[in-house]
C-alpha cells in the first residue's frame, strides 16, 4: 500500500478560509486523514516544517500547442513546466492544429496527457468550427469527450449573433464560455497598448476600448442567455468596472487576471523586448492598480497564466513581426507571492483561493480542496524561498519571459498529483 505523510506544515484551506498547522496522510493517491500528530505507519514521510501546504494549484488558461505546434511546446513539456510551477491541473486552450473542435482532438489531448503521467490536463473545446466564429461546434460531443469549457481564445467571436447562439447552446449542455474579449476592427495591426508609450516608441497601439467593448457585449449576452461567462485575461480598469457592475446585478460572470498584467506596465516595452508582446497588451499603472483592487475585492475570481510558449526563432525578430505571448507557468506563484501576498494585496488564503477552488468551481472540477477522500493533489510552498528567474532552467520549451533576472519570493518546492510526487525541489522524503 502506497502511503505518504506530509508532516509539520501549515495547511491552507481556501474553502474554510483558514491556515492551520496539520499533517496530511495520503493513502493510494487519496487524502486519508488531515490533522495534528498523524503517524505514517509503514509509509514515507515528507518533512515540510516551515512550509505551506496548499491544494494543488489549477491554471485554467494555458496553451500546450500539441497537436500541431510541438516545436513551441508539447503536452509533456508543458506538464513538466506546470509541475515545476506548482500546478497539479491545467486547462488547455483549443488553438492547436487541428483546432480542438471535435471529439478526436479532445481525446488525443487527454491520451497524451495520460501518457505524460504528470499533471491533470483538461481540454477546452472550441466554440466554433476551426475557431473561425461562423459555425458552432458539436458542444455536447465535446463535453462527452472531456471538454470542461468552450472558447475560441485568441480568435474572438466577432459576430454577436454567433456568440448569442453559442451561449444558448453552451448553457444547454452545461459548459461555461470563456471569452477572449477583443474587438478585432479596433485592435487590428496593434502590437502594444495605445497611449503615451506607443507614441514614444512609434508602435501601433491597441486601445483599451477594444477590450472593453467586447467585455460589455459578452456581459449583455450572458445576462440575456443565462450562460455562465468567464472573461479571460482582464487588462483594463474599464473592464474591471463593467465586470463589477455586472456581478452586482447578478450576471453569471467570472474573470481572471494574469501575473504579467498585474505586475508589468506598457513601460516594459521600452527596450522592444518581444517577451513583453502579449495580447491583451500590458497596460498603464492605473490599469494595474485597478486589477489589484479587483483581486482584493473579489471582482476578479481567478489568477491564470495564459502560458503561451513560442520558439526562439519566432520571438527573435522585430517587435511588430513577433507573435503575441509569454510563458508563465514557472514564474506564476513567485509573482503572486512577491507582487500580491508580501505587499498585503491578498492574504495567502485569498491568493490560493484564486489558484484553486475558484477555477475548479468555474470549470466544474472537484479539485482545489484538501479534504478526506479527495485526490491527493497538493502544492508545497516555501514562503521564504527566493530565486532569480533563469529561463535556461525552465522545463517549458518556451523561454519567452519578460521576468528573466527578476528575484521572486514564495516558490513551490514540491508538487504532488494523486499522491505521486511529480516535482520535488529539495524536500527530504524518508521512506
Automatic annotation (TrEMBL):
Known EC number: 3.5.2.3
Protein name per its UniProtKB record: Dihydroorotase
MF annotations from Gene Ontology: dihydroorotase activity
Keyword Hydrolase applies: yes
Function: Catalyzes the reversible cyclization of carbamoyl aspartate to dihydroorotate.
Residues annotated to bind substrate: 63-65, 95, 279, 310, 324-325
Dihydroorotase catalytic domain boundaries: 50-237
EC class name: hydrolase
Binding site for Zn(2+) 1: 61, 63, 153, 306
Amino acid at each position: 500500500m502506497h502511503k505518504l505523510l506530509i508532516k509539520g506544515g501549515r495547511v491552507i484551506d481556501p474553502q474554510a478560509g483558514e491556515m492551520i498547522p496539520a499533517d496530511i496522510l495520503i493513502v493510494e493517491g487519496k487524502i486519508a486523514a488531515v490533522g495534528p500528530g498523524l503517524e505514517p505507519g509503514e509509509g514515507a514521510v515528507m518533512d515540510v516544517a516551515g512550509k505551506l501546504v496548499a491544494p494543488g494549484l489549477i491554471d485554467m488558461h494555458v496553451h500546450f500547442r500539441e497537436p500541431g505546434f510541438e516545436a513551441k511546446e508539447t503536452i509533456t513539456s508543458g506538464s513538466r513546466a506546470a509541475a515545476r510551477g506548482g500546478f497539479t491541473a491545467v486547462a488547455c486552450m483549443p488553438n492547436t492544429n487541428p483546432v480542438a473542435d471535435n471529439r478526436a482532438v479532445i481525446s488525443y489531448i487527454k491520451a497524451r496527457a495520460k501518457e505524460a503521467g504528470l499533471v491533470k490536463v483538461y481540454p477546452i473545446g472550441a466554440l466554433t468550427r476551426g475557431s473561425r466564429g461562423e459555425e458552432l461546434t458539436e458542444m455536447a460531443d465535446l463535453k462527452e469527450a472531456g471538454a470542461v469549457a468552450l472558447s475560441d481564445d485568441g480568435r474572438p467571436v466577432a459576430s454577436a449573433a454567433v456568440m448569442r447562439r453559442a451561449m444558448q447552446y453552451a448553457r444547454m449542455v452545461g459548459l461555461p464560455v470563456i471569452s477572449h474579449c477583443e474587438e478585432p476592427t479596433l485592435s487590428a495591426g496593434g502590437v502594444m497598448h495605445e497611449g503615451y508609450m506607443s507614441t514614444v516608441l512609434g508602435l501601433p497601439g491597441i486601445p483599451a476600448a477594444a477590450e472593453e467593448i467586447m467585455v460589455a457585449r459578452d456581459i449583455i449576452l450572458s445576462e440575456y442567455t443565462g450562460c455562465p461567462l468567464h472573461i479571460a485575461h482582464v487588462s483594463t480598469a474599464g473592464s474591471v468596472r463593467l465586470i463589477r457592475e455586472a456581478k452586482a446585478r447578478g450576471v453569471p460572470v467570472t474573470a481572471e487576471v494574469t501575473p504579467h498584467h498585474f505586475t508589468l506596465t506598457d513601460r516594459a516595452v521600452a527596450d522592444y523586448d518581444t517577451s513583453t508582446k502579449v495580447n491583451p497588451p500590458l497596460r498603464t499603472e492605473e490599469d494595474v492598480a485597478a486589477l489589484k483592487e479587483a483581486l482584493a475585492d473579489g471582482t476578479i475570481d481567478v489568477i491564470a497564466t495564459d502560458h503561451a510558449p513560442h520558439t526562439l526563432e519566432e520571438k527573435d525578430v522585430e517587435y511588430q513581426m513577433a507573435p503575441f505571448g509569454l510563458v508563465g507557468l514557472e514564474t506564476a506563484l513567485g509573482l503572486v507571492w512577491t507582487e500580491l501576498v508580501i505587499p498585503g494585496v491578498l492574504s495567502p488564503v485569498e491568493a490560493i483561493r484564486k489558484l484553486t477552488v475558484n477555477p475548479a468551481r468555474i470549470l466544474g472540477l472537484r479539485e482545489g480542496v484538501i479534504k478526506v477522500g479527495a485526490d491527493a493533489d497538493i502544492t508545497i510552498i516555501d514562503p521564504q524561498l527566493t530565486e532569480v528567474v533563469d529561463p535556461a532552467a525552465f522545463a517549458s520549451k518556451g523561454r519567452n519571459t519578460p521576468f528573466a533576472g527578476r528575484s521572486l519570493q514564495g516558490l513551490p518546492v514540491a508538487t504532488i498529483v494523486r499522491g505521486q510526487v511529480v516535482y520535488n525541489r529539495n524536500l527530504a522524503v524518508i521512506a
